[in-house]
Amino acid sequence: MALKVTETIALAMIGFQVTIILVALYEHGIKSEKLDIFKILYLLLLVVSIGIIINVKSQEATLHGTGFSLIGMIYITFFTLSLAFFQISINRDIYSKRELKISNKNQYYKIIRLLIKISSTFLIGVIFMFPFLLVFQLIFPISDLTTETVKFYSEFPN
Fold first, then answer.
1. What angle do CA 48, 54, 60 make, to 5 degrees?
2. Which end of the chain lies in a sparser environment, N or C, as judged by fewer CB atoms within 10 Å?
3. What is the distance between the alpha carbons of residues 158 and 154, in angstroms, rounded to a whole number?
4. Is the dihedral of CA 54, 55, 61, 66 positive or negative?
5. Taking the domains of the chain in order of start, what are their residue ranges?
6. How many Cβ atoms are within 10 Å of 117's Cβ, its own excluded?
7. pLDDT at position 49, please?
8. What residues contact residue 23 under an 8 Å CB cut-off, 6+ apart?
9. Residues 24, 35: contact at Cβ < 8 Å?
10. Which UniProt keywords apply (predicted)?
11. How far apart are CA 24 and CA 32, in angstroms?
12. Mutual orientation of helices 70-91 and 8-29 as an angle, nearest 10°?
């Protein structure tokens, strides 16, 4: 439903690419990584692809007679900032002495630990999302969410 109403795919593509650029600039700023010619070319390629996405979406908006929405800009801003903070905080993760011993014995420990942290972050996000959905449902009893949910469950057995 969110893809049909807000066309989130283009916003998420822009958000992911801007996040990569922000994280690369942040790591260059704190001098944890150097920007060599290939990274600069990659970042420029990301900027060009963002420009292409914006150009295509603006042409589509012109055809449909709609403009850019403020909610889309807010979505991109929140999505980009939260993803950038998430990626930066994952890189700053500190291991205890016990975890260092385990990671020396098992080379896959870091991957498993990262996957557990990412999945727990998403689960916590989903848990916090339910009260907001309940409030939204109480404020707007008939909405796109209601019609999409009814349609999904009516077509599910087929």
1. 140
2. C
3. 8
4. positive
5. 1-92, 94-158
6. 14
7. 93
8. 84, 87, 88
9. yes
10. Membrane, Transmembrane, Transmembrane helix
11. 10
12. 40
Nearest alpha carbon to residue 43 among 62, 23, 60: 23
CA distances from 108 to 91, 93, 111, 114, 153 (A): 17, 16, 5, 10, 40
Q: What pLDDT was estimated at residue 3?
A: 46
- Residue matched to tokens 């996405």: 53
Residue located via tokens 């150009």: 55
Token couple for 96: 């205890």
Query: Model-level pTM?
Result: 0.63
Q: Name the DSSP letter for residue 143.
A: S
The rounded distance, in Å, linking the Cα atoms of 65 and 24 is 37
Judge contact between 103 and 110, C-beta under 8 A.
yes
